[in-house]
UniProtKB/TrEMBL annotation, chains A, B:
GO terms for molecular function: inorganic triphosphate phosphatase activity. It is an enzyme of class 3 (hydrolase). This is Inorganic triphosphatase. It comes from Methylococcus capsulatus. Keywords: Hydrolase.
Length: 166, 166
């Protein structure tokens, strides 16, 4: 069991791509749509995990993660998970002494690019790269659980490209 | 991943107690109340498991089970599970060449005693002990997920002791 603290930002432009150090393809789905916690199956490469997170709004959440057989992950994604599944490529982008994760979504969430930074404390200072746009840490629409129920391609034009983000 | 086939019966009287071979105390809770599948945390003795079952009505269901650290199980039961938790003592009762599980519920489900038999095939023949009462395999009220949302002590007198079971 651990705590997870992360801050999340929209991404402006492609400036981050030249700094990518690594990437991985992720496919994940949720076994529930509860307020209390999320139960997520994730497959990346040849490995699979079951992840449980408390759904506390904000930056600090309880998190439990267990590796499981890939065959179990595949059948749970196919048979038991809410659809659509979340498909994305995660890019690792070093900035100063930290590594940001930039998620480029595909499938029904194509067009959405989000950058996340894990922190040890909610108020920990960090350098904001120039390609980091509006912070959406507390905006539930960007939770992956919500993106599986209401994917980006079903958002209104105004929601996807609000004037304040220009 | 496996399939689970089980048949469930109400229990009449105490005749089964003289045949008990073993028992264990169980405390469990659910992280969801979904139609699609159940996500269950169970602690028994010094061990804990995370269990995921598809919610197909009837006897045959997909089942996945992973052992987890007891400390994780305890904090998930306390913080993330639906309440009330299910508390019961499970008795193992050999009958002919099979072992029945008789669950004697406690807490908010006190008064309920249910016997279960795991089978390899839904139509597999077996010897029915004299203390096995009405079959409730297909009665959703007796699912442990349902007993955590609507425990036995909230059932009406008529539901608990219907005339047909006398």
């Amino acid at each position: 069991m651990g705590f997870e603290i992360e801050r999340k930002f929209l991404v402006r432009g492609d400036g981050w791509r030249k700094a990518v150090s690594d990437s991985m393809r992720i496919c994940q789905g949720y076994l529930n749509d509860e307020q209390r916690c999320s139960v997520r199956i994730r497959i990346s490469g040849e490995r699979a995990w079951l992840n449980i997170k408390s759904a506390t709004i904000g930056a600090r959440r309880h998190e439990y993660e267990y590796e499981i057989p890939v065959a179990d992950g595949e059948s749970m994604l196919a048979e038991l998970s809410c659809k659509p599944l979340i498909e994305k490529v995660r890019y690792f982008v070093p900035v100063a002494d930290r590594v940001w994760e930039v998620d480029v979504f595909e499938g029904e969430n194509a067009g959405l690019v989000v950058a996340e930074l894990e922190l040890d404390h909610p108020e920990e200072p960090f350098e904001l790269p120039e390609w980091a746009g509006e912070e959406v840490t507390h905006d539930a629409r960007y939770y992956n659980t919500c993106l599986s129920m209401r994917p980006f391609n079903r958002w209104s034009q105004e929601e996807r490209y609000p004037a304040s983000r220009e």
